[in-house]
Amino acid sequence: MAASKTKYPLGSPQEHIEMCKSHVLPIDVICEDCDEFICGKCTKTDHKEHEWNTLPTAATQRRRDLLIFLTQIKEGDLLGIDEKIRKVSKQITENEELCDSEIKKLQKHVDGIMAKLTEIRGKNERGLRGFGGKK
Question: Which residues pair with 5 in a beta bridge?
């Protein structure tokens, strides 16, 4: 029986470790000043005056910073946004009520104008009939 070969969509199942192009050593450090991945030898040459961390340490620190940032967003920014949304919703409701009130006032005025115009029209029609009847 032939052994079946499993194909891996990302290539080899082994972990791929990038190599430093200058020193052909595994990249295991990040230079915080340059925001570059470097090898241990780079820390002693090109980046010796820079701040750097090992990849696990940098990853842990960045995870911690992200959690702090997300907590600040959740506790600070989102609460502020929720309060602003409540205020805007209240203002919208108040504006709708005010608008309805103004519409009712305007409708009363329109009804009054229409009634007055109907009255004037009636008087004019009666006057014209009376005028036309007398020759």
Answer: none
CA-based end-to-end distance of the chain = 126
The pLDDT of residue 91: 97
Amino acid at 23: H
The dihedrals phi and psi of 109, each to the nearest 5 degrees, come to -60, -45
Give pLDDT, residue 21: 85
Instruction: Report how far residue 90's alpha carbon sits from residue 99's, in angstroms, rounded to the nearest whole number.
Output: 14
29 with 39: CB under 8 angstroms?
yes
User: DSSP E strands: which ranges in the chain?
Assistant: 29-31, 36-38, 52-54
Residue 8 has pLDDT above 80, yes or no: no
17 CB contacts (<8 Å, ≥6 apart)?
A: 26, 27
Total-model pTM: 0.46
